[in-house]
Every structure is written in C-alpha cells, then in structure tokens.
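About this split. The held-out portion is used to measure sequence recovery: a designer receives only the structure tokens and must propose an amino acid at every position. Recovery is the fraction of positions where the proposal matches the reference. Here is one held-out target exactly as it appears in the evaluation file.
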C-alpha cells in the first residue's frame, strides 16, 4: 500500500498548470493561442487512498520523471476584444512494477486528467493588462493494479471532482516582445476540494509575431477529502511546485 501511495503522489506531481500568454491581442480582433508546456514539479504533503492513515509524500522531479510513461499538457485561449475563453487539458500516465511473490506478476498504472475552462475579462492598463477569470477545474484520478497468477487479475480505483475557481492574471509589458506574468487563483470552497490556490510568476518573450516562450515558477496547493470510509477513502493534501516551461503559438 505504501508503494501504491508513493506512485499516486508521483501522478499528482504533474498537476495542472498552463504557460501564460505573453502578447496583447488587438482590441476587437480575434486571437487564438495554443501553448504546449512542461511543469517540472516536486511535491510535498500527505495522501491516503483506500485505507485509513495518511502517508507523507516528498518527491523531487527526478523521481517523478522515472515513472512517467506518457504526458500531454496543452492550453488554448480564444479572445475577441476584451472577452475570452481559456481551456487547459492535462493527461498523465505513470507505471511501475510492484514487489510480488515469484508466481505473481504485478504492475500498477496511474492516470490523471485535469481540465480547466474559464471565462476571462480583460482590463487594459497603461503598463499592460489584467485578466480576471472564473470557471471550473475538473480532476480525474485512476489507478489500475494488474495481477497475473491470481484469481483476481485487476483492481481499479477512480476519483473525480469539480472545483469552482476564481482568479486573475496580470501582464506587465516592458516592450512589445518582453513581458512579466503574474497569476493567482483560489478554488474548491468545499464544493469539490475543501480549498486550493495557485500562485505563479515568470517572464515571456516573443521571437516572432506567431511564436514565443514562457518561463515561470508555479506553486499549487490542494486539500481534498471525499469523506468516505475504506476502501473508498481518498485524501490528497499537498503542494506541487516547480518551474514551468511553455511554448506559445498565436494566430
């Protein structure tokens, strides 16, 4: 079970984020942004799944990377003037072999999907702009334990929830191409998780009108408890933080 919790914590370490936009759309024009990114995070906190009793989690990014089988992280934005829609999708799959008797083959797969959908209102300033946004963030976690040599060959666990989220993003323009980005939001409010918050800051640079890059640091905290008894218990109370590197394609 400790191995189970260890791998689950690894899965959560690639928690959602998005590389921020670094250019200001023209007032009434349509603008589309696609931004693949990588969140190179470490994680600390505690978690529990299926049984009572929390396990401490303290995982550097290097340990997370060793378990990674597949990852996809993408943000998209559509703006028309001062109104926009922001969407973000993250899919992570990790796997590992488990210690088992010789006659039993065991491996574990963990999957995480996080989807954000926000409506944004842009407030233009002389130094740049502020985006105020609100919407939802959905979380989906899945664990499959595969066994060979036993009557029970597959054990699965799933947990899903939806968090309402409100927040903002400020972009400070130093030039037409170089900007500083600051983002923060809060969510959960007992509807999904008990509470969560994000703090994010960094810089962005556009090499051309259609392409740029963004380097930031992100801190994400979430406290979720499904308030169920074992074997349906699920608790995740931890902070995920680290550098985030994204590419920005704009049309």
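Reference sequence for scoring:
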């Amino acid at each position: 079970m400790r191995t189970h919790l260890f791998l689950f914590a690894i899965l959560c370490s690639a928690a959602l984020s998005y590389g921020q936009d670094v250019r200001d759309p023209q007032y009434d024009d349509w603008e589309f942004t696609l931004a693949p990114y990588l969140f190179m995070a470490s994680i600390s906190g505690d978690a529990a799944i299926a049984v009572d009793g929390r396990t401490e989690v303290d995982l550097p990014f290097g340990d997370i990377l060793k378990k990674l089988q597949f990852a996809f992280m993408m943000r998209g934005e559509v703006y028309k003037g001062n109104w926009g829609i922001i969407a973000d999708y993250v899919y992570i799959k990790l796997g590992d072999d488990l210690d088992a008797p010789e006659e039993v083959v065991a491996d574990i797969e963990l999957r995480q999907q996080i989807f954000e959908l926000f409506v944004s209102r842009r407030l233009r300033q002389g130094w740049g702009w502020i985006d105020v946004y609100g919407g939802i963030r959905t979380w989906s976690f899945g664990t499959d334990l595969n066994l060979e040599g036993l009557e029970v060959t597959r054990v699965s666990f799933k947990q899903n929830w939806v968090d309402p989220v409100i927040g903002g993003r400020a972009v400070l323009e130093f030039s037409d191409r170089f900007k500083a980005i600051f983002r923060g939001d809060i969510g959960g409010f007992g509807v999904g998780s008990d509470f969560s918050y994000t703090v994010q800051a960094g810089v962005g640079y556009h090499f051309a009108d259609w392409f740029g890059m963004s380097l930031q640091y992100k801190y994400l905290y979430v406290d979720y408890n499904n308030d169920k008894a074992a074997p349906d218990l699920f608790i995740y109370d931890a902070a995920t933080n680290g550098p985030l590197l994204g590419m920005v394609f704009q049309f």
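Annotator remark: The longest helix spans residues 2-12.
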